[in-house]
Specification:
298 residues, alpha/beta, Purple Acid Phosphatase, chain A, domain 2, six-stranded mixed sheet, 8 helices, 14 strands
Length: 298
Amino acid sequence: MKFLEKTSKRNKIIFLLVIIFFFIMYVYMYKTAHSIRIRYITLEFEDLPISFDNIKLALAADMHAGIYIPESHIIRMSDLIMNNNPDIILFAGDYIYSAPHRFKYYNKKNTDKFSNGIKGLEAKYGKYAVLGNHDNWESREDVSNALYFNGFKVIDNNILFITNEIGEYISIGGVGDYLTDDVRFDIAVSNVKAEDFHIVISHEPNMPLKRAREGGYDKLIDFFFSGHTHGLQISFLPMSFWEAVNKNRKYPIFPAVYGLMNYGSIKLYITSGIGAVLLPFRLFAIPEIVIVTLKAKR
């Protein structure tokens, strides 16, 4: 109180404005972290079979159900996905968050929140997922079981082929998280021909993409989907800036924090994710679901 009495009227006003500013920022960043937007993208591919023209992918990652993200937020994500009637659903890891890794703490209730939140998800050609670093740190077994229980196929270091009614196919491969698992592109692209349409999912984008290029696997990958970066989560520049920085480069500047870009011949999307870690805040990095419509280039 004595401090305020000795402070000039001008400084009191400045002090009050600073408090108001930080309160507004607190509310804005908290509300942003608990919002979800839908981003729509259309991509053309020469390798996509004509019979798969207009197939729709729903992409999401980094839900981090737990101390900051309630089950209701995951349910809302699932409702928004189903409102778009996807043909394939792809998840790119980090589904739970109990505490920062250094605390080595896991709460199974957070996996239950995630599992309950994705119960209503359905897709014509299936649901596929890889695990992230937080999933492996906390409970690989519980998170994998939650995904399997809800009809997802976990494809870390694996590959599968999706064949339609007329016998044409596309393929989806997954690699393990770079921080906590092996990254096996030799498996994730096995039996894929150069003329096939192939998708790869990875939780962390940076090192797997470098390994794909160094091993020549990038020539077999048409579309690569990843998460992990949260779009920085607290960014002092809009996401459109980060996307523009990398969009027209042959290879992105890493860390590639957000958006649609090219990596050599690969079309790449790194999502800002759904949840939050460390703090329950986001600045500019708006949580998102991405709906990608694939077109066959004629």
